[in-house]
């Protein structure tokens, strides 16, 4: 009897302990992952901020007026302090990481001092300009090094917790790529601004206006099916499914899925109920070896737009990603580029057929505009540009400025050093509305490992 | 006598030809472009040749990396200006012919340097041997652990740089691909683009962090991050989906949230206004 009770109690004890142990183990794992995620965030945020920092400093180099320089320098200042705090969160207390912090502090000091000063009365001196240039190139180096480390971290799935454990137990970690990488960063001492999607992107606030310019009758499900069938170009042996938008959407649309019964390739598309305009289209399939050039593909894209009733558009940007060509078009009205009206098209470089189409920005922004006459002359606008920038191309454009208004600008493309900049000068009052450093091709890091 | 002269002529011509054959038959022969029109944004061998030739003439001072970017564009325009061609920044038939006539392209040399990963230039009138520097003169770090399963396509000649959408780096793309793969690997392609688009909508939104990594690693934001699935190796599809989202495709109608109705544990998420369903996920504001 007593023995039975004892066995019962002990069994319960063992089971309880096992259960407790398992709970502890799970909690420990959850906390480990959590801590790891925090380190990962701090690290990736840091590399991103250095990226933005580098770009921001590069942009300030091409700026001329106080109106744009002061906010940009304030931005640099903000970024350095953010980057600084992220460096502080990494488990690198046992590593000599002070030079990078010093570098961040010196950019911070410099940008703060110049941002709060009245640059109209006391513009940047030649010496300050040179030091800004130097900071730019240093930031570039650090950026490069950090990206290398980031690439290795991502590629090899490295864990910060491993680094910390290694440092805590004082044993030499088997794989100290992170530590080595940071030592390299430290040696060369490294930079990017808030993500700026460029003039051809409509931002969130603007998005709330919800297709108010669209015209036309409500279409039926059947009509939506036919539009999608035309875009997918699979022929008639297809399986079609149409659904309506949910209540959360502020505008009405149909979502159409078209599946080719033979190849099982699937195309998806959203079409506005009002007027039946295509919002976006995606065709998912494997693209084979490149058979046509980017230029041929751009001709196909232009033809496609013509066939589908989109008019007076300019090819603004083209880029090749593997065997896909992506093209951005913007409206051109009397030689004025209207950047908010943008359409993107993706063409497969194996057969030149449509892979994707995105007209959301265009449908939201496109309407008949009453474009004012410029008040200042082109020469006046040109004189507002930083004299260091060599102007290569010029034109007129409508962009959306920082306070979400469409403004008419003179647009200048120019170079400074190895970088190309796009500068928009307000055609009304000569304000420097926007200065953008254009993206250069990015080095592939495959070979560093 | 006449016949003899003819024979001597023939022999002379043949021997002259023989003289030239070994030179042009050497792998340092002059190769010209394929017949495509090369425009900005293009990548590949033709771009490498274009950059090399422009550099030979001193128009292009950047890196020969096989991506037709802004530097190449201005170099080409300057070339077109100097040589009296139409200035359009595109390498069409006429431009390519002028370029081939005016410059030399040492394909073997350029390819060899690219394959070795060396720093090099290709200016005319300077001994090529003096224009290369071996790779890795900077202090090299120890080799990372063997993880070379990803190098399947190494054998082919590739450009050493790549086009990336404005405002992002390859690493941002990699990180997003990790998140998309962890969250939506079982979803159709459009569903994966949609998840990437939600991440970007959050970056844009004032109520979320302003960086891709900030959004992804925000505590309790994504289940794949909380349970570690984000560290699975993403496939090509996830990467392509991310590229589409970065290039401006948003299949969600500007959604900020999504959830799987079968597994969602929070009641709150059902209270968000729903926009649409893609695959298994419901997207909401």
From TrEMBL, chain A:
One of its GO terms (biological process) is spore germination. Pfam families: PepSY (PF03413), YPEB_N (PF20769), YPEB_PepSY1-2 (PF14620). Residues 27-162 form the Sporulation protein YpeB N-terminal domain. InterPro entries: PepSY, YpeB_N, YpeB_PepSY1-2. Residues 180-372 form the Sporulation protein YpeB PepSY1 and PepSY2 domain. Residues 376-435 form the PepSY domain. This is Sporulation protein. The lineage of its organism: Bacteria, Bacillati, Bacillota, Bacilli, Bacillales.
Automatic annotation (TrEMBL), chain B:
One of its GO terms (molecular function) is hydrolase activity. GO terms for biological process: cell wall organization; spore germination; sporulation resulting in formation of a cellular spore. It comes from the Bacteria. Residues 159-168 have a biased composition (Polar residues). Residues 44-99 form the Peptidoglycan binding-like domain. Residues 186-284 form the Cell wall hydrolase SleB domain. SUPFAM superfamilies: PGBD-like (SSF47090). Residues 125-168 are annotated as: Disordered. Keywords: Cell wall biogenesis/degradation, Germination, Hydrolase, Signal, Sporulation. Belongs to the SleB family. This is Spore cortex-lytic enzyme.
């Amino acid at each position: 009897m007593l023995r039975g009770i004892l066995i019962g109690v002990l069994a319960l004890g063992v089971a309880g302990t096992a259960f407790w142990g398992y709970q502890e183990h799970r909690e420990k794992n959850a906390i480990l992952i959590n801590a790891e995620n925090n380190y990962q965030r701090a690290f990736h945020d840091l590399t991103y901020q250095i990226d933005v920092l580098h770009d921001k400093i590069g942009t300030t180099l091409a700026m001329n007026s106080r109106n744009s320089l002061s906010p940009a320098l304030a931005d640099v200042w903000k970024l350095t302090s953010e980057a600084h705090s992220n460096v502080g969160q990494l488990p690198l207390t046992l590593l000599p990481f002070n030079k990078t912090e010093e570098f961040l502090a010196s950019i911070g000091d410099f940008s703060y001092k110049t941002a709060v000063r009245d640059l109209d009365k006391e513009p940047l001196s030649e010496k300050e300009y040179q030091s800004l240039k130097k900071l730019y190139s240093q930031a570039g180096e650090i950026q490069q090094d950090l990206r290398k480390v980031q690439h290795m971290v991502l590629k090899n799935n490295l864990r910060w917790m491993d680094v910390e454990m290694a440092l805590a137990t004082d044993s030499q970690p088997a794989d100290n790529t992170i530590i080595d990488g940071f030592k390299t960063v430290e040696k060369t001492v490294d930079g990017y601004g808030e993500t700026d999607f460029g003039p051809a992107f409509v931002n969130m606030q603007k998005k709330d206006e919800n297709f108010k310019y669209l015209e036309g009758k409500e279409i039926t499900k059947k009509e939506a099916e036919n539009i999608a069938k035309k875009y997918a170009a699979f022929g008639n042996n297809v399986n079609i499914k149409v659904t309506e938008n949910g209540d959360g959407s502020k505008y009405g649309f149909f979502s159409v899925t078209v599946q080719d019964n033979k190849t099982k390739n699937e195309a998806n598309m959203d079409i506005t109920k009002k007027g039946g305009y295509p919002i976006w289209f995606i065709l998912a399939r494997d693209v084979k070896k490149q058979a046509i050039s980017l230029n041929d593909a751009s001709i196909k894209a232009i033809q496609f737009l013509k066939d589908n009733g989109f008019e007076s558009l300019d090819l603004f940007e083209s880029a090749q990603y593997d065997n896909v060509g992506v093209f951005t078009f913007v409206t051109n009205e009397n030689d004025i580029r209207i950047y908010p009206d943008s359409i993107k098209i993706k063409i497969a470089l194996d057969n030149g057929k449509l892979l994707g189409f995105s007209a959301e920005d265009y449908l939201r922004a496109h309407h008949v505009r009453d474009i004012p006459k410029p008040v200042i002359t082109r020469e006046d606008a040109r004189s507002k540009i930083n004299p260091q920038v060599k102007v290569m191309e010029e034109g007129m454009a409508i962009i959306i400025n920082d306070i979400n208004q469409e403004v008419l600008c003179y647009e200048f493309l120019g170079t400074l050093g190895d970088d190309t900049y796009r500068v928009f000068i307000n055609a009304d009052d000569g304000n420097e509305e926007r200065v953008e450093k254009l993206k250069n091709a990015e080095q592939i890091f495959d070979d560093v490992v | 006598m006449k016949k003899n002269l003819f024979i001597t002529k023939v022999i002379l011509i043949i021997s002259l030809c023989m003289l030239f054959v070994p030179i042009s038959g050497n792998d340092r022969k002059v190769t010209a472009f394929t017949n495509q029109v090369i425009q900005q944004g293009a990548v590949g061998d033709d771009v490498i040749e274009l950059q090399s030739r422009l550099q030979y003439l001193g128009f292009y001072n950047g890196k020969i990396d096989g991506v037709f970017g802004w530097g190449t564009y201005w170099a080409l325009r300057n070339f077109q200006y100097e040589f009296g061609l139409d200035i359009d920044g595109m390498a069409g038939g006429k431009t390519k012919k002028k370029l081939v006539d005016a410059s030399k392209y040492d394909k073997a040399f350029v390819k060899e340097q690219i394959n070795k990963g060396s720093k090099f230039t290709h200016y005319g009138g300077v001994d090529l041997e003096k224009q290369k520097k071996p790779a890795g003169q900077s202090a090299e770090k120890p080799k990372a652990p063997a993880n070379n399963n990803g190098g399947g396509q190494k054998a082919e000649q590739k450009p050493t740089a790549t086009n990336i959408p404005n405002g992002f780096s390859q690493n941002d793309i990699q990180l997003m691909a990790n998140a998309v793969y962890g969250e939506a690997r079982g979803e159709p392609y459009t569903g994966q683009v949609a998840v990437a688009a939600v991440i970007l909508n959050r970056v844009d939104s004032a109520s979320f962090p302003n960086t891709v990594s900030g959004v992804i690693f925000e505590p309790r934001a994504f289940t794949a991050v909380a349970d570690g699935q984000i560290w699975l190796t993403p496939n090509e599809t996830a990467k392509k989906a991310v590229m589409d989202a970065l290039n401006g495709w948003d299949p969600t109608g500007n959604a900020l949230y999504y959830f799987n109705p079968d597994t969602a544990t929070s009641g709150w998420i059902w209270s968000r206004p729903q926009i649409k369903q893609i695959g298994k996920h419901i997207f909401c504001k």
